[in-house]
């Protein structure tokens, strides 16, 4: 895709996150579930709802054809993100970190201002990360938490810092006992991602580069 613009939504870590249009009904062990994380089910219906939201937003875009072609793996992309969100929350809870509504709103406003407005921010996230408009707050919250985690762990934008973050997230991922419906692949605790899928992450330089 196009070169990414820096925004306040980016994080100083290269952690992965984030899916083929498969009509899966769930594994034999967990019928109807796309994955089970720490005993909590991620229902196929919830996954498909996210996919529909993204596809609807893409179809309404002037670049609909390109956007849809670029996200052919959307089911796995969205499932990857739904699981990764739970890993982030696990790490945040373990570290005593929260993201207030005010922080989320302020971060979103800053990102929109840098992007040229809310409409431009929404278009950028749809294009670069397959994020539907009503998912933006969730993406912002995730990045606020990740920035706070990196800061608390003293993990700067260095190889050592990245390794430290990866180890913490990998440990949390393993503790969650993530079980993915085999129709969507398998979860890799060491890589903190679904199979070989690698999702684009908006990045941020040290000191959360000011826009």
UniProtKB/TrEMBL annotation:
Top-level lineage group: Bacteria
Keywords: Signal
Signal peptide: 1-23
Pfam families: SurA_N_3
UniProt-listed InterPro entries: TAT_signal, Trigger_fact/SurA_dom_sf
Protein name: SurA N-terminal domain-containing protein
Lineage: Bacteria, Bacillati, Actinomycetota, Actinomycetes, Kitasatosporales
């Amino acid at each position: 895709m196009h070169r990414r613009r820096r925004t306040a939504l980016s994080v100083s870590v290269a952690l992965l996150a984030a899916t083929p249009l498969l009509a899966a009904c769930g594994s034999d062990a967990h019928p109807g579930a796309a994955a089970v994380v720490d005993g909590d089910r991620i229902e196929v219906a919830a996954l498909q709802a996210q996919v529909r939201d993204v596809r609807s937003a893409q179809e309404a875009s002037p670049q609909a054809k390109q956007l849809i072609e670029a996200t052919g793996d959307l089911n796995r992309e969205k499932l990857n993100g739904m699981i990764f969100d739970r890993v982030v929350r696990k790490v945040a809870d373990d570290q005593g970190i929260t993201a207030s509504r005010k922080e989320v709103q302020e971060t979103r406003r800053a990102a929109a201002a840098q992007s040229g407005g809310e409409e431009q921010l929404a278009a950028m996230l749809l294009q670069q990360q397959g994020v539907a408009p009503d998912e933006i707050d969730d993406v912002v919250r995730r990045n606020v938490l990740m920035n706070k985690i990196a800061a608390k762990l003293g993990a700067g934008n260095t190889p050592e810092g990245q390794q430290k973050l990866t180890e913490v997230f990998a440990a949390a991922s393993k503790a969650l006992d993530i079980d993915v419906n085999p129709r969507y692949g398998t979860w890799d605790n060491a890589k903190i991602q679904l199979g070989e899928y690698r999702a684009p992450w908006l990045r941020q330089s040290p000191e959360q580069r000011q826009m």
